[in-house]
């Protein structure tokens, strides 16, 4: 019997042994993952909707989820979460594309200022075109939006400069850009604010080379301000909500988009030893799961799917072994907001400043009964 | 001629209202005791609901319960200084403070209003027309002597915090007023803020109407407020 290269390969190299045979929650497609995260490692997150799950689980798992834009302490409970503080490390909202990430870096450091003006809703309130859903109720004025944006960029700079590990989930290849200066938007103008004008905006579907170029530009800028920063790159398993590719079916467009992102991610890991790929895409979409990790809408990921991803991330990056949950086929989508302390009682979320103010006001109110004149 | 009833279910701010008889009205004023451990108060919520239920559609019920959040959030300087931007772009609050978007502060207030059980319970219990009156706007100048009153809170005296800048206190009162008006509107309750004649040109409580503390108005304000309440009741403007 002749010898051959496959004879010495580990089980993970074989489909039947590592994908078809194990219980689906036990499938572990992580080949090699050399990055180690300690309890005090500052882990920052950005990306598409799926990245919100990573952020939420990191926060809940006792790791140092690095949040630089937590919102003022008076914004507690459901308001804090609803206003997107803590959803990601800074309040940038979803960053779907590599171009958007590169643009965030360049804008935060003043190297690029898009020409696009603020978007004004019919009620006179104002949206940031580059974070159009970040502020429920919108900003009261352009000036308020600009002040908030300046505070946001200061937080983003701090995040890039102080983080240890940056987790970025590549979500989409399709985006809309300004014809004036190439600035890209997270949402097509007109969908959530703004007015769509074909003379001002154009559709762009990024290819592998463009994504790798954008990511490399970002990585170079990140390492320039933080030479020891490490990166984890993942690909979101969440399919496209809709495609604007002419004549395309959304399923084919999703396959294209995810394929391009997956190839780009691999190229980045080959080019940089500090960029690590984590296969959350494979964990959710692989045949072993038989689609069970998708909710009823066949798009959002269930909590069981997110748990599988996070269990493997914690195992490989931290050495923490978390028991696999039962293979319950829940079709409920995982929540997409960062965990937050619920407001169990009206006064339960007060800090010292508010408690002192309340005590002072209550004393004054009591005194009003004694001091009636 | 049958008199209409004017029932006022108030709080510490209703102590400034006159108790004198009013032509055409049977006036009753109570301080709602909304917490079991409250030191003051003359009527519990179940008693208030019962009283409210006894009113007819020709009567007027005035609630003075919500609207003090601007003081909780903004009377004293916060450990993490913050400010807001006014519509004209003016920055109010401590210098270099973090600016919080107005809609975020408004959401904090709305969230608190929505957890209130008193106002909906009273409204649901009565057929009378219901008006809610907010605490008076802030005082531009708060006498220094009030900084040292009241002892320590969490081991820190009021002087250590200090009173917040007047323009921020007024901005918060206005945000709360707007949020409260919207909240009450959904419940079918009219919102009333303060008699115009008791305010300065910039919207603060005028010094002639200061009570002897940092947050309350005096009996002269109470007289003006009662006149306004009676005018509203007679005009039924809020129906």
Automatic annotation (TrEMBL), chain A:
Q: Pfam families annotated for this entry? A: GSCFA (PF08885)
Region Disordered, as annotated, extends over 325-351
Q: Which residues form the GSCFA domain?
A: 42-311
What is the protein name stated in its UniProt record?
Answer: GSCFA domain-containing protein
Q: What is the protein's species of origin?
A: Pararhodobacter marinus
TrEMBL record, chain B:
* Top-level lineage group: Bacteria
Q: What is this protein called?
A: SGNH hydrolase-type esterase domain-containing protein
Q: Which organism is it from?
A: Pararhodobacter marinus
